[in-house]
Amino acid sequence: MQSPLKRNLDNRNHHGTPNMISILSLQEAQFEESLDKILLPPTDPNAEIIVVSGYKLVYVNGGCPRNYRVYKAHSMIGVIFQHITHWSNAVDSLRYTEPIDAAVRLDDFMTMTGYFTTTTEQPPTEEELLDKEFDSLTSEEWERLKRYVPETRDLIAA
Length: 158
Hints:
By secondary structure, the chain is α+β, with helices and mostly antiparallel strands. Helix content is 33%, strand content 18%. It has a 5-stranded antiparallel beta sheet with strand order 1-2-3-4-5, with helices on one face. It is elongated.
């Protein structure tokens, strides 16, 4: 069975051409373009950013609530949400009047639960960097990964 689009293109009385841009390909292009905007790092000049007392809030998506990734220094600590009348985070059920309050409570929770370590450690290895979320990498870490060549191990053909 022939698709309606193909049937119309084969019909001499129809004014379509085989080179028409399909609605699906246009929608796919718009979707990919919107993904690029959603995943902008906080260092990108096109990213929509709110800076509040030691935190960077980077807009991700959404209308109500609007979703923001929260960065402290160069690390993403979580997500907060901007509603019409208040702000919230994903770790408690409280409503905050200011984004800084939601970000601080999120940070306090993540620190209290031990998600963040405060010890002075060696910088992560390239293998450890590969396990991190891409949007939490610093520009220096990205540069390290660009130059990284994994060690080859002895492989035995089966």
